């Protein structure tokens, strides 16, 4: 009796429960699809494209699009590589330095007479090893990845400088330049972008469809819980650093192909944009959520925005400011949408509990089956808890 | 019942004496700084040179002051990547204003010179704080965004112009070479800030709140610590100190351009980390951060004097950061063995619980 009276206005349990509940769940489903991060990114992309092509007729020319696609390639590989690391709740600040070191080693090997493709293969292996070093130090000593990769960032750049001694290597073979800046089958679509998309697709499959990917999100969500449920935490965390290193090495190959020069400080300014792209792509900075598709869309958005602002006559620094503001708006806006969604979900949850006990048991059995499924996916990678 | 499980003597070992003294981080840091200085002074004559020492100490003082601010933020388990941009922006605005006021003397100008950079720092720091505690952005993202915004603003404000040393009031440009009681003015200023913030962080409730928030944010909230307000305040203080660092930056270099302060944040964070401020929050001190900055710059200075190439210096600096972090992690784990080790190893949990129950 009194419990009803004490409720704040507007939260009384509905009499016509079935209709109200249906409406609520409809809203919920709609919100679930509309409030997806990727939808927001697509919307922003449409707005930027519409605005920029209204501002200038030169915006959507094939040449302009090709340049944009090429410019986004190196950044794209860096961002895709670091995305899994951020999904596990770690961070890798050394990706740009890994790019530089791998590029320098590849260039030097080539200069000493090695075939450029063998050198590229070795560079990818080196990238994996550099990532492995990061991962091992972070996991084995239980250190904050921020501090470790801050250290390895200067270490790797320093080694790159030591190898080149301030010089630059230029004039790479035509085949590499063709790979880095040529078009696919003679068309305007760059080969590099095609390879980037293929790599993104493979990565998306690995992250979103395999047990390994599931364990990445489990670790990012709750490391302790992941360990107790048998997720190979140490191995997965090390492996994502290896992925980041290998992708940075891939970025190095395309950097050499596109810009045709190897310097020790190359791409040093790409670190923060890469992390920006990952975060703007909807990957939580605390780990545990995000999609590769979102990162790719964020890359497209950033590139379009940069070019669009350039077309609109803004200077490079004003573009940087705009990207910073966009990042703030996107992240805090995303948090606001999430809060609204949670409120709806909680209300629905509350009414479902009030409604009937049968639906609740159904829910429980559902969660139980999900748990079983989860266990079976992780079984191959079962690791004994130390 | 199971009395052998409790062996108090084992863990209390080393409570007194030299071993205990060296467990205090700052003591270890000071002794390393002193040892490095003595060895360097004996083996490298150029290190003893007055100009070199002044240069080193002044450089270290600026980094140390900003590192104190950064340490407050790190202690609350946050991070501020925008300190370099705040320093640069405040240096440029203050410098250009002082350049325009160059004809006018008097106490008013001195007051402007002192208060304007701090005010700029407070404004920029509070933007960081509000984004993090009210817009609920992760600190690393928010300050990454404000880093690009502030450094972009610096370029826009400057419009390609520069502030030159001759435009500055003489007392400011001479501050760099002034020394009181044989010790450089920058060092005195840094010492004042260190003493002030050591007091604040050790004694005042405000400081203890920051530690509590860093050690366990959840528990801090339950203890009715106003965590949001404290977070904003930590960022404001950090911004204020970075802004003040901007003033010293002008005094040090005289020329300020659009790129002033770029990359400074990494040196500051590295200094704080070498000084034992944990990136996981709750552990470390302003004094440690300042000492870490001094140690980092001292090593850099020695390497430069040994004519080791600047590139190898960078490598060694990176290695130094990693090994410092690793060392602190090992020391921390050893000193907290009975308390923390069991937290990660569930098997050992039971004896720990039994122990506390027996004691009660």
A few lines on this structure:
The complex is a heterodimer of chains A (386) and B (360). Chain A is built from 16 helices and two strands.
Folded structure, characterized:
The complex is a heterodimer of chains A (386) and B (360). Chain A has a domain at 74-270. Helix content of chain A is 76%, strand content 1%. Chain A has 16 helices and two strands. Chain A has helices at residues 2-6, 17-34, 37-55, 62-87, 95-111, 116-140, 145-164, 174-181, 191-209, 211-221, 223-228, 233-259, 271-280, 292-311, 316-355, 357-378, and strands at residues 169-170, 261-262. In chain A, helix 4 (62-87) packs parallel to helix 9 (191-209) and helix 5 (95-111) runs parallel beside helix 7. Mean pLDDT of chain A is 79; it is low at 1-18 and 357-386. Chain B is mainly α and 360 residues long. Mean pLDDT of chain B is 78; it is low at 1-14 and 339-360. Chain B is built from 18 helices and two strands. Chain B has one domain (50-339): Orthogonal Bundle (ABC transporter involved in vitamin B12 uptake, BtuC). Chain B starts with 7 loop residues before the first helix and ends with a helix. Chain B has helices spanning 8-12, 18-23, 25-43, 45-48, 50-75, 83-100, 107-133, 139-158, 170-175, 185-202, 205-215, 217-222, 227-253, 264-274, 286-305, 310-335, 337-344, 349-359; strands at 179-180, 183-184. In chain B, helix 7 (107-133) packs antiparallel against helix 8 (139-158), helix 7 (107-133) crosses helix 13 (227-253) and helix 14 packs parallel to helix 16 (310-335). Chains A and B meet through helix 7, helix 13 and helix 15 of A and helix 8, helix 14 and helix 16 of B.
